[in-house]
Design brief:
There is one protein chain. The chain is built from 5 helices and 4 strands, in the order αβααβαββα. By secondary structure, it is α+β, with helices and mostly antiparallel strands. A two-stranded parallel ribbon has the order 1-2. Strands 3-4 form a two-stranded antiparallel sheet. Strand 3 (about 75) and strand 4 (about 85) form a beta hairpin.
């Protein structure tokens, strides 16, 4: 969770970057959403975690959209087979642990 705590205000991190930052195998990406769901959002900025395409995780982090918008991150509704699918520009807002 230290890696997630280091994500700066106004930036996000993808599952892939978490796995790289933690130095664990890529297979751990599958468990990150469930782990976030069990994490206290008041202790860690879990709202700053997105999938590898920049899509939000409202099923796991209910207040994610509002929290990201409060930090000035542009979140848009995307055309998807899933209802209420939101995404952000990962190139613009993504953080790799060194920026």
């Amino acid at each position: 969770m230290h890696f997630i705590s280091a994500v700066p205000y106004g930036k996000v991190v993808s599952y892939k970057e978490i796995v790289i930052g933690m130095g664990v195998a890529n297979s751990f990406m599958r468990v990150i959403p469930q782990y976030l769901q069990k994490t206290n959002p008041e202790q860690y900025p879990i709202h700053r975690v997105v999938d590898t395409k920049g899509q939000l995780l409202p099923h796991y982090i209910p207040s994610q959209i509002d929290a990201l918008r409060a930090e000035g991150i542009a979140v848009v509704l995307v055309d998807s087979i899933e209802p209420h699918s939101y995404q952000l520009d990962l190139q613009r807002y993504g953080w790799r642990g060194n920026s």
